[in-house]
Write a structure and sequence with these properties.
By secondary structure, the protein is an alpha/beta fold. The chain has helices at 4-34, 64-79, 81-84, 97-108, 125-132, 146-150, 154-158, 184-194, 204-220, 237-247, 266-281, 292-298, 359-372, 375-385, 397-401, 409-424, 436-463, 468-472, 478-493; strands at residues 54-60, 87-93, 120-123, 178-183, 232-234, 253-256, 259-262, 303-307, 317-319, 325-327, 330-334, 344-346, 351-354, 426-428. The strands form 5 sheets. Strands 2-1-3-13 form a 4-stranded mixed beta sheet. The longest helix is centred in the N-terminal third of the chain and has 31 residues, at 4-34. The chain is globular and about 75 Å long. The relative contact order is 0.15.
Length: 497
């Protein structure tokens, strides 16, 4: 077993390798400046600078159809441009987004048993920021022409500009926003019986009211009291908190010079509470599986808000039990907004981060990413994965439809709604800051875990014979909300600058 000293030596050796590479790149930048130019003044030659083969490793969180499509494109690059320029890309999935984050940080810190840092890894801003603070992220601003930069929406490129000085630390490759996905087969039976409409689901408040009607309708169909079913669930609670607060005029995290200030107003927090926690405790909302698509498959919910890329995992059947199932159709609708709120939509979808390395490695990495985001290649990835293309030219339904690629009716509905959401809303993602991943986890679990635990208590009381209204009463008081609000503010303040 290695000693603590051995572990530190391993970490330092790995870190030194990366820092040395970064220093070499910085020296090249200085030499260019001394000759009257700069790395940021124009693009570098992204073709390999020598005849030696360059192998580039890529870590992603893609799985299922997304991984299959990404792998096919990697193979195509290797067989064409890569072959011409002596570049070989080796890509692998690290599992979930959380698994990828864990593995990247372990590699960056040189932990015992960790793999070597890849040349490229998928990352959201907070993970990229953490690795960048170690000096292990390459700035790509000098590798793109002004024309190449202009092809992307500005917010996509500035996501990785942590110092607000024009750096590009995250290369956009695939984006997503949130939509509402609905088991339309079971919805139609409810709609016919009650007069419920899709329009009822266009606001957060309307969704909650409709979920209450669905609970009562399903409850009335059985002899047992208080056994109604949930209509709705959410995949990403942090998005609900961040975007919901933004719609309500409260920017939850304000970041300046890498320092975060918490701005969760009580009014915004109350709205978020009343439109998630309260309906969850009442049984109108649910979240039992790992993802809400799992709850669709088991019939625990009829609808969920999630990333447009998650649509590829939407089930085609509801499993009644181990031997019984029935087919369902999916409807895609815009993500509900708070009534009267601002037109805001989440900007998500991890970009690619190029790590510090030799000039040949960085050049080769950028060459692959430029190729991947060519409209024809980016659209190809989108059509099969559900992600949105990242260039303005490609993020257009006419361009997608005329690409010559086969577009299923299901994927057309998904992409059409996602494209419209991007065009009709201001895209928002919080700026990165130290501890941002941990603060986001507070948002992810503070409200949802409490709601789940308290709902379980209510169900136990109902099973013991207590009326639902009585079983819920203690959880629906102002005092209970105040305790949660004070607790989440305290938890978030730990990561403030």
């Amino acid at each position: 077993m290695e000693s603590a000293g051995d572990c530190e030596n391993i970490r330092m050796k790995r870190l030194f390798k990366r820092i040395t590479a970064l220093a070499s790149a910085a020296a090249l930048t200085l030499s260019l400046a001394a000759c009257g130019g700069s790395a940021a003044s124009g693009p570098k030659n992204t073709a390999p600078t020598n005849a030696k083969p360059v192998t580039i490793t890529v870590w992603s969180y893609y799985n299922g159809d997304q991984l299959e499509t990404f792998s096919k494109l990697v193979d195509e690059f290797n067989a064409t441009v890569g072959k011409e320029q002596n570049i070989t890309v080796e890509a692998s999935s690290q599992g979930s987004v959380n698994d990828l984050e864990t593995n990247v940080l372990a590699a960056a810190e040189g932990k015992v048993g960790a793999a070597e840092m890849p040349n490229i890894f998928s990352a959201y801003a907070d993970t990229c920021y953490a690795v960048d603070q170690m000096g292990l992220v390459a700035d790509l601003s000098g590798y793109l022409t002004d024309e190449e930069k202009a092809a992307f929406p500005e917010s996509y490129l500035t996501e990785g500009d942590f110092d607000d000085n024009g750096t590009i630390k995250i290369f956009p490759v695939a984006k997503s926003t949130e939509l509402l996905f609905l088991n339309d087969t079971d919805w139609q039976a409810f709609a016919v019986a009650t007069g419920a409409t899709y329009e009822d689901l266009s606001t957060v408040e309307g969704l909650v009211a409709t979920a209450g009607k669905y609970y009562d309708w399903t409850d009335a169909r059985t002899e047992a009291p208080d056994d109604g079913k949930a209509l709705f669930g959410r995949d990403a609670m942090a998005n609900y908190m961040l975007i919901g607060a933004k719609e309500l005029g409260s920017t939850l995290f304000t970041v300046e010079n890498g320092k975060m200030t918490v701005n969760l107003t009580e009014d915004a927090a109350r709205k978020l509470w009343e439109n998630y926690y309260v309906p969850f405790v009442k049984g109108w909302f649910a979240g039992e599986g790992r993802f809400r698509s799992d709850d669709i498959k088991t019939g625990n919910v009829l609808a969920y808000v999630g990333s447009n890329s998650s649509a590829t995992f939407f089930p085609t059947q509801v499993m009644v039990n181990d031997t019984e199932s029935y087919d369902i159709d999916m409807t895609v609708l815009p993500s509900p907004k708070f009534a009267g709120g601002e037109d805001v939509a989440v900007q998500q979808g991890a970009g690619m981060v190029v790590t510090a390395g030799t000039e040949e490695e960085i050049n080769a990495s950028v060459e692959f990413l430029k190729w991947f985001t060519r409209p024809e290649n980016n659209i190809s990835f989108s059509v099969d994965s559900g992600y949105l293309p990242v260039t303005t030219a490609a993020n257009d339904m006419e361009a997608i439809k005329t690409s010559g690629l086969e577009l299923s009716p299901k994927m057309e509905r998904i992409l059409s709604n996602a494209v419209q959401s991007v065009k009709n809303n201001t895209l928002y993602t919080p700026s990165a800051f130290a501890g941002g991943n941990k603060a986001r986890k507070v948002l992810e679990y503070s409200l949802s875990d409490l709601a789940s635990a308290d709902r379980a208590t209510v169900q136990e009381r109902v099973a013991a014979g207590q009326p639902a209204a009585d079983a819920e009463e203690e959880f629906l008081t102002d005092e209970y909300f105040d305790a949660w609000y004070g607790g989440i503010c305290t938890a978030l303040e730990k990561y403030a600058g």
